[in-house]
Amino acid sequence: MIRNLVTKISQIFAERSHAARIKCSVPIKITFEQAKNTAKLTQPSSPLFITGETCDLSGSGIAFIVSSIRVKENYLVGQDRVLIAELDLPDGKIQMKVVGKRYEQVGVHVSTEKYLIGAEIVDISEADREAYDYFLKFGRKRKKAAASMELGID
Hints:
alpha+beta; two-stranded antiparallel ribbon; globular
């Protein structure tokens, strides 16, 4: 009896210590944040990027699937590398800075090999945060449609 009570209390604390995740697949474009130039090294003229799709979203992080763990010699996870994620939500594109925390190889065969990357959101503008939180709360419903329904206008 006491063991069951302790287990339930532990589960409640565990659920509340993590942000709720929402399974969602939207297109994502990952670019590398420009590093500061040093005296002898220069940045490439075109930014490096990779595209993929999200797997799940939360208020504090995202998980996405891409075809490679690196672009040229730049790895997506490790060394606290800041990435710029551009999500294509139904109401428009939003940008956020994320840091890859973990990755896992998924896919059954070499030809379908992909990588699932878990990243923490480290920076997002106020307007993009508002749009992102709205998407997390209401999903694919559009703001204008929801507003017209509330007011009874159509």
